[in-house]
Amino acid sequence: MPRVKRGTHRVKRRKKYLQATKGYMWGRKSKITLMIPAVLKAGAHAYVDRRRKKREFRALWNIRVNAAAREEGMKYSTLIAALHKKGIALDRKVLSTLAIEYPQVFSKIVMSVK
């Protein structure tokens, strides 16, 4: 069986990990045996947190819409149900933005579904 030395491939691989671990501390930024698990774990956390971010933003929008709806004398769940019943297709992100940046428009929407 021929000997495989992996000259350029090894250098490319190490360069890739060096770039990925820029900013890490101690051996995790310079030693290949510590770099690889650090990069893999960071990637796993990034994957999970990209999904968690969506969850947290939706919860934030719900809280904002609920607070604005209660100022208008209506609960969040009642508002959402009334919007669905009336056929007004505004998602929670848009409602949240309206509640914060355009409160008059939000109050008109609430009045239209009361």
From TrEMBL:
InterPro entries: Ribosomal_bL20 (IPR005813), RIBOSOMAL_L20_CS (IPR049946), Ribosomal_protein_bL20_C (IPR035566). It comes from the Bacteria. One of its GO terms (biological process) is ribosomal large subunit assembly. Keywords: Ribonucleoprotein, Ribosomal protein, RNA-binding, rRNA-binding. GO terms for cellular component: ribonucleoprotein complex; ribosome. GO terms for molecular function: rRNA binding; structural constituent of ribosome. Belongs to the bacterial ribosomal protein bL20 family. Binds directly to 23S ribosomal RNA and is necessary for the in vitro assembly process of the 50S ribosomal subunit. It is not involved in the protein synthesizing functions of that subunit. This is Large ribosomal subunit protein bL20. It comes from Candidatus Uhrbacteria bacterium RIFCSPLOWO2_01_FULL_47_24. The gene is rplT.
